[in-house]
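Hey L., structure's done. Input below.
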Amino acid sequence: MNYIGHLYFSGNDKLLQLANWYADEIKGSNWSLYPAFIVKGAQLHREMDDFTDNHAALLKLKKSLYTELPKVAPIAVDLYIDHVLTKNWALFHPQPYNDFLEQFYQFAYQEIKSVIPMPNGESFRWSSSFKAFLDIFYSRKFMNQYPELSGLRRASFGLSRRISFPNKLANATAVYLKHQEKVDEQCLIFLKDAQKYFGVQKTIFMD
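Output:
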């Protein structure tokens, strides 16, 4: 699952959303180094990744796209999930998508200034790399473009250049358009199942 999925499936808890994003900064599982809310967010992040990696509809989708997107089909499917989620945002969340993002960013910028006391007497400070990560996302408005094909294209090109081996991820948008009906269907099946699993219930999809 990609960036928006991790925010959305954290519910409306802004601190949990931020901690979920911070999970990529954490290596291993020495939880004693982090405040309880960071641990909760990191564990949720890993649970989301595991749920996504093993979901039947997505496994089927990745397999069907492997010939056209060898080695990077799982990455492309992560991008597709965010694209399908955001272009159908009104079905999932009552707040307009750009307002949802802006509220998250404003909260995040206030929170990362804080120094958090730990039970062991030490303090937790948000890493400089995470602060830089937030700056890039906010200033360049990457996620605001996710509902559009241009956003999917930009994300796939950008990730393609960052992968260390030759790859066809830059073709992800063309592959999406070729198989759009199937991709949308499988991603929506996954999103509905994930809502139930993670207890996010602000959608017309819920039974």
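Residues 3-197 form one domain. Residues 180-198 form the longest helix (19 residues).

-- N.
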